[in-house]
C-alpha cells in the first residue's frame, strides 16, 4: 500500500464568519462503503483540521464531542471555547463555525434532520438547547435538570431523546415539545444508550456498578434487566468497574453492549444477559479525559473515547497515542476474557474522542485538533 500524505487545513477561529468555502478535497480518498473487515487495518490519518487560534498565542480548545448526521455527510464537534464546528465529510472541508458563548456547549448531536442539533449547556443553567444550524437560531429549550448534563442519546428512528445528569435523574423527551415526557430517579445515571431497534434503552450508573435496561414503552414499571458490572468484570481492576466510565453503546446488530472506561480497558458485554464477552485491554496509557460526571482527574469532558464500527464487529478506542481496534469475533471464539487489540493504527496525537461515520468507512478522532481517517488505497 502506498502512503497517503496528511492534508492539513487551518480552520478559522471562533470569530470568523459562519460559513466557509475551503476548496481542498479528499479527492480519490473519498469515504467508501466497502465492507469494514476489508479496510479496518488500512485506516490512516488523512486530513488534519487545525484551528488558527494558536497563531495568536492562545491555547487550542479541547474537542468535547464528535457526531455525524444520519446521511454521514456532515461531522460536528463541540469545543471547549464554546463553539460548534461543522465539517463537510465528502469534500473534506470546514463548513461552519457557530458560537454559543452565552450558554456554553457540550455533547452536541444532530437530530434526524441535519440542520437541527441539540446540545447541553455548560453555564447559566443546565438546559438542553435545540438549534437550527442554517441561521444559528434556537428552536426550543428543554428545561428540567438541576445539575450538569452528562449524556444525550437520540432515539435511532424517532424524535425522542434521553438526557442524564449529575442531579440523579434521567429525563425522556420528545423533541417536538419543551416538556419532558418521563423522569427516572437513579443513583449517578451518567450514561445512556438505545438499542438499534429503539425499543430498549440502557442507563449506566458507575457508583452502583450497574447497567439498567428498560422497555421504552413501559419504562415506568422499572428496569426489566440489571447488569452487575462488578460481578461481570472478569479480569478488570475493580476501580474500572465502578468509576471513570466514558461511553455506553449497543452494537448495530444488537448483540453486544460496550462500556467504555478510563481504566486500562473497556468492557464488551453480552447485550442479553450482561455477561462479560471480553475485557478489551489497552496496551498502554489511555486518554486523559474525564469520565462521565467527573470533575477531577482529567483535562476535559468527552462524548466518548471508544465506539463500535457500523458492522458491530469491531470496537475502536482512543489512547494517549494511536487508535486501537479490537475484533469482537476473536472475543467470541477465545477462552481468555482479556482481548488485546487486533490492530494498532499509528497516530502520534492523543485520540481522546472517537466516532465512526455511520454511512461510510471514515473515522474522526480528536483531542485539540480534529483528524479524519480513511482507508489507504491499494495503489
Number of domains: 1
**CATH homology group:** YVTN repeat-like/Quinoprotein amine dehydrogenase
Q: What is the overall pLDDT average? A: 90
Q: Looking across the biggest beta sheet, what order are the strands in?
A: 1-2-30-29-28
User: How many β-strands, per DSSP?
Assistant: 30
CATH architecture: 7 Propeller
Share of β-strand residues: 35-45%
Number of helices: 3
Kindly provide the radius of gyration, computed on alpha-carbon positions and rounded to a whole number of angstroms: 19 Å
Subcellular location: Nucleus
GO biological process, one term: RNA metabolic process
Biased composition (Polar residues): 14-30
Family: Belongs to the WD repeat SWD2 family.
Please give a structural write-up.
- The chain has three helices and 30 strands.
- A five-stranded mixed beta sheet has the order 1-2-30-29-28, with no helix packed on it. Strands 19-20-21-22-26 form a five-stranded mixed beta sheet. A four-stranded antiparallel beta sheet has the order 3-4-5-6, with no helix packed on it.
- Residues 12-27 have low confidence and may be disordered.
- The protein is mainly beta and 379 residues long.
- It has a single domain (7-375), classed as YVTN repeat-like/Quinoprotein amine dehydrogenase (Methylamine Dehydrogenase, Chain H, 7 Propeller), CATH 2.130.10.
Quick structural summary:
With 379 residues, the protein is mainly beta. The chain is built from 3 helices and 30 strands.
Amino acid at each position: 500500500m502506498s502512503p497517503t500524505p496528511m492534508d492539513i487545513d487551518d480552520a478559522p477561529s471562533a470569530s470568523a464568519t459562519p460559513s466557509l468555502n475551503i476548496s481542498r478535497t479528499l479527492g480519490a480518498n473519498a469515504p467508501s462503503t466497502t465492507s469494514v473487515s476489508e479496510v479496518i487495518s488500512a485506516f490512516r490519518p488523512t486530513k488534519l483540521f487545525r484551528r488558527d487560534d494558536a497563531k495568536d498565542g492562545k491555547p487550542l480548545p479541547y474537542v468535547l464531542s464528535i457526531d455525524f448526521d444520519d446521511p454521514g455527510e456532515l461531522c460536528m464537534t463541540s469545543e471547549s471555547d464554546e463553539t460548534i464546528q461543522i465539517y463537510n465529510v465528502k469534500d473534506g472541508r470546514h463548513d461552519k463555525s457557530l458560537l454559543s458563548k452565552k450558554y456554553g456547549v457540550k455533547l452536541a448531536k444532530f437530530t434526524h434532520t441535519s440542520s437541527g442539533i441539540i446540545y447541553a449547556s455548560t453555564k447559566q443553567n443546565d438546559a438542553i438547547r435545540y438549534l437550527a444550524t442554517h441561521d444559528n437560531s434556537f428552536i426550543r429549550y428543554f428545561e428540567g435538570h438541576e445539575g450538569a448534563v452528562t449524556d444525550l442519546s437520540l432515539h435511532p428512528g424517532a424524535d425522542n431523546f434521553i438526557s442524564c445528569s449529575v442531579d440523579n435523574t434521567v429525563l425522556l423527551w420528545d423533541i417536538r415539545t419543551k416538556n419532558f415526557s418521563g423522569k427516572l430517579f437513579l443513583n449517578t445515571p451518567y450514561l445512556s444508550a438505545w438499542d438499534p431497534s429503539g425499543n430498549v434503552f440502557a442507563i449506566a450508573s458507575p457508583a452502583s456498578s450497574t447497567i439498567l435496561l428498560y422497555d421504552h414503552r413501559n419504562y415506568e414499571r422499572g428496569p426489566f434487566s440489571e447488569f452487575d458490572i462488578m460481578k461481570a468484570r472478569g479480569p478488570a481492576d475493580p476501580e474500572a468497574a465502578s468509576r471513570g466510565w466514558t461511553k455506553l453503546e449497543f452494537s448495530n446488530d444488537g448483540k453486544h453492549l460496550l462500556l467504555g472506561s478510563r481504566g486500562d480497558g473497556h468492557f464488551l458485554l453480552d447485550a442479553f444477559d450482561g455477561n462479560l464477552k471480553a475485557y478489551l485491554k489497552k496496551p498502554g496509557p489511555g486518554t486523559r479525559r474525564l469520565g462521565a460526571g467527573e470533575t477531577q482527574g482529567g483535562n476535559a469532558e468527552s462524548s466518548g473515547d471508544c465506539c463500535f464500527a457500523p458492522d458491530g464487529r469491531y470496537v475502536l478506542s482512543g489512547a494517549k497515542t494511536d487508535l486501537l481496534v479490537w475484533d469482537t469475533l476473536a472475543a467470541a471464539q477465545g477462552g481468555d476474557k482479556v482481548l488485546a487489540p487486533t490492530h494498532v493504527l499509528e497516530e502520534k496525537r492523543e485520540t481522546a474522542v472517537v466516532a465512526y461515520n455511520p454511512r461510510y468507512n471514515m473515522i474522526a478522532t480528536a483531542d485539540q485538533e480534529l483528524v479524519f481517517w480513511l482507508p489507504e488505497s491499494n495503489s
